[in-house]
C-alpha cells in the first residue's frame, strides 16, 4: 500500500526542568551522547523509517536548534518531496499568539497539511531518547483502520502523574485517557504498571484537521492533545494503542527490548547519558543498520597523550568525541563532547562534558555536567563537597553538579573598505 505521509515534529519545548541546560537553547537542542542533540533521535527515526517529508515546529530559544538543523539536516533539494523544514511560530491563530498547546501548534500550521493533502500525519515530539521503526506503527495503524494511533509503553505506577495514561480493551482499542493523575488506571493483569502515552501519534489527516479546527473554537480548551482532544474522542472514532515494546530495529538482537527515556529532568538526562556509555548499553549507538545521524563535523580523531606514571592520558568505560585531547588526564565512566581538553593530572568521573570544555591540570570532577565552553581552572574540585558546590553551581537533589559555560563566538565575514 502506498501512503502519502507527512511528518510533523513538535520541537518548541522550553524544557524548564532541564534548566540551566535550556537557558540558552530549546530542549530538543540540548547535547546528548557527546556529538548529538536530543532532536537527532526523532529525526533519525523518521529518516531511517523512510519518512522524508518533515516539518519541524519550533518556538522557544530556537537559534541553537536552527543552526543544528542547518548544519546537519538539510537535503540536497534534488527531490521536492524530500525535505526537513523548520517552521517558526507564525502567530496564525485568531489572537496572533504563540503556540498555546500541542493542538494549537498543529492548528497554526494546518495550511501545511491542507496544501499537501497527506493520507497520514505522523506527529511526534522531539524530547525523548529512543529508537523506533515508525513503519511498524504505520502498518499497525493501517491494519486497524484507525483514525488515531498512540504509541504507548508500560511504566511504573508511581510515574503515572508524569504521563498521559491510556486504558485499552483486549484488542488494543483505547477506552480511556487520563492525563497526569496519580490514580490513573493500571494495566490489565499488572497493578504495578500503567500504559503511558509516549506523545507520538498517527492521525488520518482529515480527522486531525477536523479536531484542531473544532478545538480552537472551544474557549474552555487548553488546546492540548493529551488534555483536551484525545479524551474527547474516545468512543467517537477508532483509536488504538501501539505497543512500543513490539517495535524491533534492524541490526539489533531480536530478543532485546526497545529503549525509551523521557529526559525531562536533569537527573533523567544524566541517567540516560550514563546508559549510552555503559559497557553493555541498553541503547546501542553503534548499530550501522540504524544510524543515529547528526551534523557531519570535520573533527580530527580523539587523541590520548603521554604514557608516563602520573601522566597518562586515558579514557575508561567512556565515550570520547572527535577533536578531544586527553593530555595526561584520566576520564572514567563519562561522556565527553567535541574539542575537549583534559590536562595532566586531571580526573573526570561519572560526568557529562559538553563541547569545547577545558579541564585544567590536577582538577577533579565527579558526577557533574559541564556545559559548553566552560573553563575548569587548575586544581579545581567539583562534585566532592556538595555544600561548597552549591555556593557556585546548580546542584540537583541527587547531587549532580551543573557547571555553566559560555556562549560560542560566531565568526562573521569581513569586507575590505
UniProtKB/TrEMBL annotation:
Enzyme class: transferase
Segments forming domain Glucose-1-phosphate adenylyltransferase/Bifunctional protein GlmU-like C-terminal hexapeptide: 300-403
Pathway assignment: Glycan biosynthesis; glycogen biosynthesis
Transmembrane domains' residue ranges: none
Keyword Chloroplast: no
Enzyme Commission code: 2.7.7.27
GO molecular function: ATP binding; glucose-1-phosphate adenylyltransferase activity
Keywords carried by this UniProt record: ATP-binding, Carbohydrate metabolism, Glycogen biosynthesis, Glycogen metabolism, Nucleotide-binding, Nucleotidyltransferase, Transferase
Binding residue positions for alpha-D-glucose 1-phosphate: 99, 164, 179-180, 197
Gene3D superfamilies, per the entry: Hexapeptide repeat proteins (2.160.10.10), Spore Coat Polysaccharide Biosynthesis Protein SpsA, Chain A (3.90.550.10)
Pfam families per UniProt: Hexapep_GlmU, NTP_transferase
Catalysis: reaction(s): alpha-D-glucose 1-phosphate + ATP + H(+) = ADP-alpha-D-glucose + diphosphate
Domain of life: Bacteria
Role played: Involved in the biosynthesis of ADP-glucose, a building block required for the elongation reactions to produce glycogen. Catalyzes the reaction between ATP and alpha-D-glucose 1-phosphate (G1P) to produce pyrophosphate and ADP-Glc.
Family according to the record: Belongs to the bacterial/plant glucose-1-phosphate adenylyltransferase family.
PANTHER family: GLUCOSE-1-PHOSPHATE ADENYLYLTRANSFERASE, GLUCOSE-1-PHOSPHATE ADENYLYLTRANSFERASE-RELATED
Summary of subunit composition and partner proteins: Homotetramer.
Name this protein carries in UniProt: Glucose-1-phosphate adenylyltransferase
Amino acid at each position: 500500500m502506498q501512503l502519502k505521509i507527512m511528518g510533523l515534529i513538535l520541537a518548541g519545548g522550553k524544557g524548564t526542568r532541564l534548566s540551566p541546560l535550556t537557558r540558552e537553547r530549546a530542549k530538543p537542542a540540548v547535547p546528548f551522547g557527546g556529538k548529538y542533540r536530543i532532536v537527532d533521535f526523532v529525526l533519525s527515526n523518521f529518516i531511517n523509517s523512510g519518512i522524508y517529508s518533515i516539518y519541524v515546529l519550533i518556538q522557544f530559544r530556537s537559534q541553537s536548534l536552527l543552526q543544528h538543523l542547518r548544519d546537519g539536516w538539510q537535503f540536497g533539494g534534488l527531490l521536492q518531496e524530500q525535505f526537513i523544514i523548520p517552521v517558526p511560530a507564525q502567530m496564525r491563530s485568531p489572537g496572533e499568539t504563540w503556540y498555546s498547546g500541542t493542538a494549537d501548534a498543529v492548528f497554526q500550521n494546518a495550511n501545511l497539511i491542507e496544501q499537501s493533502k497527506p493520507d497520514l500525519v505522523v506527529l511526534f515530539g522531539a524530547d525523548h531518547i529512543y529508537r523506533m521503526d515508525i513503519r511498524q506503527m504505520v502498518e499497525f495503524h493501517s491494519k486497524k483502520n484507525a483514525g488515531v494511533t498512540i504509541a504507548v509503553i508500560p511504566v511504573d505506577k508511581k510515574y503515572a502523574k508524569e504521563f498521559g495514561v491510556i486504558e485499552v480493551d483486549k484488542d488494543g482499542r483505547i477506552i480511556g485517557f487520563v492525563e497526569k493523575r496519580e490514580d490513573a488506571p493500571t494495566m490489565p493483569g499488572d497493578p504495578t504498571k500503567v500504559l503511558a502515552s509516549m506523545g507520538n501519534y498517527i492521525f488520518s489527516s482529515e480527522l486531525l484537521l477536523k479536531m484542531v479546527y473544532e478545538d480552537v473554537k472551544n474557549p474552555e480548551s487548553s488546546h492540548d492533545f493529551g488534555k483536551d482532544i484525545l479524551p474527547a474522542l474516545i468512543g467517537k472514532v477508532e483509536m488504538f494503542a501501539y505497543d512500543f515494546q513490539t517495535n524491533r530495529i534492524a541490526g539489533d538482537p531480536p530478543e532485546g527490548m526497545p529503549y525509551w527515556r523521557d529526559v525531562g529532568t536533569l537527573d533523567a538526562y544524566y541517567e540516560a547519558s550514563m546508559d549510552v556509555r555503559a559497557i553493555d548499553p541498553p541503547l546501542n549507538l553503534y548499530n550501522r543498520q540504524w544510524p543515529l545521524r547528526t551534523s557531519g563535523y570535520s573533527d580530527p580523531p580523539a587523541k590520548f597523550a603521554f604514557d608516563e606514571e602520573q601522566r597518562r592520558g586515558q579514557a575508561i568505560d567512556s565515550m570520547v568525541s572527535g577533536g578531544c585531547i586527553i593530555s595526561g588526564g584520566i576520564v572514567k565512566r563519562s561522556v565527553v563532547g567535541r574539542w575537549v581538553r583534559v590536562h595532566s593530572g586531571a580526573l573526570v568521573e561519572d560526568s557529562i562534558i559538553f563541547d569545547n570544555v577545558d579541564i585544567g591540570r590536577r582538577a577533579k570532577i565527579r558526577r557533574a555536567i559541564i556545559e559548553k565552553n566552560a573553563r575548569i581552572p587548575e586544581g579545581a574540585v567539583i562534585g566532592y563537597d556538595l555544600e561548597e558546590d552549591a555556593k557556585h553551581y546548580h546542584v540537583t537533589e541527587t547531587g549532580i553538579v551543573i557547571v555553566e559555560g559560555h556562549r560560542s563566538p560566531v565568526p562573521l565575514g569581513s569586507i575590505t573598505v
